[in-house]
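To whoever is on call:

I kicked off a structure prediction for a single chain this morning and the downstream step that reads the tokens threw a length-mismatch warning. I double-checked the sequence; it's 608 residues and nothing unusual in it as far as I can see. Pasting both halves so you can look.
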Amino acid sequence: MAVYRRGDCMPKDRYIIAQIGTFDCKNFGDLLFPNVLEWHLKKRGQNAELVLFSPMGGEKPFESGTLVYPICDLERLYRERHFDAIVIGGGDLIRLDSGWASQEKYDVDASTMELWLIPAVVSLKYDIPLLWNSPGVPFPFTAAQTPLVKLALDAADYLSVRDETSRDNLGETEACRVAVSPDTVFTVDGLYPREKTDGLFLRLCERFGFADDFMVFQVNQSVASPDACAAALQEVQTKYGSEIVFMPIGYVHMDKECMRTLYSAVSGRDLKIRFIEDELSPVEMIAMLSHARCFIGTSLHGSAVSSAYGVPAVALNFANLAKVRGAFRLLGAEDCLAADFADLPAAMDAALKRSASAAAELRRQAEEHMDRLIGCIGAPKRHAFTQRGAQSFFLEVHHMLTKGVTQRRGILYYARPSSDFSESARQDFTWHQGKPFVREFVFDAPVVAVRLDPLEGSGCIVWNLHILADGCAVPEDYVVVPCGAKKQGTYFLLDSDPQLVIRMPRSARTIRVEAHMCSLDESQERLWAQTLDNKLQFEETPDASGSETMQRILCEKEAHIAELTGALEEARRHEIEMRAAHEAIVHSTFWRMTWPLRRLVGMVKGKR
């Protein structure tokens, strides 16, 4: 039997591809990226399965049954599924800040760097092609961050970003390797041809009662002057006569709440407008945008989808976002940008005079990008580190991911009516020391119990715990502590495998957990155990002095944890500095020139 290795590049009947992005929140463009990639794979005759990864994971919005895994599970799932490639993007993912779109969904103060540094590490460790699917780079990196960014770029086998600004933000040294390829959503008209959305559009017309001649309007931030908005829309409507439909696009960006407020403020004016209160799926939004006369809004992908169908687009770039400027520069439509409402009428005139040729050119460039990206799937990894280089990169990534972070990983196991807890029935989550944790767990079938394992290897304190099962509060007496104690609403899990078991009053498909949590080291566990046994023998009724004592001790322990975290961070910095000094010595000219002398000395010592 012939044995094939990855380097032999044997074609496979089916590829398994990990795709990284923010596919677990209700944001129009992000939800389209997997669908677009899957369509391009099929169009090129590739039988492939996409395994999706996002910051927290869960069920993909508007697609029942499509599971999104947390990024922390990437390595574990590789060992089970053996990915043929890791694809990063699209979206504004290449960054080192904490600028999550959804603070409610991404409840921890985690850095966005996990979405591209963890895949780089896994790619190097297991020799998997790492491919950039035209993500965005919203901000330039600092001089201190540049070495790490360069190492991450060196780990990639195919590099592409969605605009010139993104390439510039990566730094001049990497520009030659990075292709500028339009956002792949510019090809969405191939996935959902306009004629195939006609029936859906007619049903939406009947459902909401708007006219055939309409413009879509959208904003995702509070508008400082409703009067300026009303005046601009009035001028546009007087000139072109179309009804204006207020349609939220990015629910994660608070579109709906902002637009409802704005609609209420301007609806009494002499305007023919309509507000879509119901949440629409991405395909329903596409049906609306592809049949509109024009799109006016802050959403990049609202403009991209409209342009893909030849519908004029005006970008309300109030925040001066680089990604919006970059897309309209590629379209050659910078005169269709409006920095405020006063610019809207002129930008509208420019948009309606434009031809669709620029969008067709972007579509062609995006197709060429997909040819290059898909051609790398299953191929040998092109960029391999030396062992020393890989170790240096792993250390640097570990330092960046843990710098000043009190983040912990936990597991929620669940049991169905006919089964018990098992490794195959779990959802992973992330939390931060002492910070509010809020997470809704969604299950594909009813569960009767869950087991919350906040972490492994040390004890844990849980307080301010609230559980909702299908929206109904779960009483405290349904919460069991297998090893530890509960005092005054605080759970002390004094075991190296801390657990809370919650039995449901009735089976449920969604469980919402709200809590504060704090981990303990071994000495703290002993202290808390002694404190519970000897000093804080509370009654079941509230006791003010005992509660104050508990809070004081808790504050002391949190301060000690912060002190230890700072010391650990300093030790890591020292380790990296020592390794760098060692690398500088062994690669220096002096070290190489004195090698014969050192060898001679070694031989002499050996003879003694």
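Update from on-call: the warning came from a stale cache, not from the record. Cleared it. Sanity check on the structure: Residues 1-8, 522-528, 530-543 have pLDDT under 50 and may be disordered.
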